[in-house]
Design goal:
Layout lengths: L1 H12 L7 H8 L3 H11 L4 H8 L32 E5 L6 E7 L6 E6 L2 E7 L5 H8 L4 E4 L3 H11 L11 E5 L3 H11 L9 H7 L6 H9 L26 H11 L1
Parallel strand pairs: 1-6, 2-5
Antiparallel strand pairs: 2-3, 3-4
């Protein structure tokens, strides 16, 4: 996974627009078939298609659905009409005495996953947001213990299957310290159809307050559950990728994989 992670970073940083499969294979020191399989296994797409999408001018463009007549025949891709995950996001109202956390290798960077008896409370990337430090700050009175619990492993399994749906993941309980408004924003994100992009303004409109774009942006930036709550799918109306708590380069990478 470290090999894939470093390769993806290199492809973005050095803008390998014209790279061939042969050149890429030499870079990763694998055969062409093994290189192809590596990308398909974790990303669900061809490596050269990934490069093309990563630098596409339309990468962060929000497509508004067209008006469809009831007489039109529509072929719908069910894989793109449902959310990536089935989350049950709740506001934590109880006192938490113990939180277990786990650190896992991941092809998008090492991830820190934490949970308590009520659900998952944190999923972050270690290279940009030290998980244990944030956990202590958010839950200063809880006892923190490193352990690969069933729920932490289930969340990790969901991340591993994020781009290639290998098996059905049950509902993932999420229980976090948050305001009702934050949770309403995160639920909007969690319910986005797979690969669909949105903007702060669109979310504000869905929540019934056209003037709430700035507040929506703040809530998106405060998301404590990376990927599972897909805040990386919020882009500027102009088509710019925009800021991302865990790195704009990672946001571009995610959008390119999902495109």
């Amino acid at each position: 996974m470290e090999l894939l992670f470093s390769t993806l970073r290199w492809m973005l940083d050095s803008q390998q627009l014209g790279i061939s499969l042969s050149d890429l294979s030499k870079r990763v020191e694998l055969g062409e078939w093994e290189t192809q399989h590596l990308f398909q296994e974790y990303l669900g797409k061809d490596p050269l298609r990934f490069v093309k999408d990563a630098f596409s001018p339309s990468l962060a463009q929000v497509h508004q659905p067209a008006q469809i007549s009831i007489f039109d025949v529509v072929e719908e891709n069910s894989a793109k009409s449902i959310p990536s995950f089935d989350l049950d996001i709740q506001i934590l109202t109880e006192t938490v005495e113990e939180i277990t956390y786990s650190v896992f290798p991941y092809f998008l960077g090492t991830v820190f996953i934490a949970s308590h008896e009520f659900g998952i409370c944190q999923v972050t990337f270690e290279d940009t947001d030290h998980g244990l430090t944030r956990l202590k700050k958010t839950y200063p009175k809880a006892e923190l213990r490193e352990e690969q619990t069933e729920l932490n492993l289930l969340a990790y399994q969901a991340l591993m299957n994020y781009f290639v749906q290998k098996e059905t993941i049950p509902v993932l309980p999420v229980s976090v310290k948050a305001s009702p408004f934050q949770v309403s924003v995160w639920n909007e994100l969690a319910n986005l159809p797979k690969s669909e992009l949105t903007t702060y303004g669109v979310i504000a409109q869905h929540l019934g307050d056209l003037n709430a774009s700035r507040a929506v942006g703040t809530a998106v930036g405060a998301n404590p559950i990376a990927l599972l709550i897909p805040c990386h799918r919020v882009v500027h109306q102009s088509g710019k990728i925009g800021h991302f708590r865990w790195g704009s380069w990672r946001k571009r990478l995610l959008l390119a994989i999902e495109k």
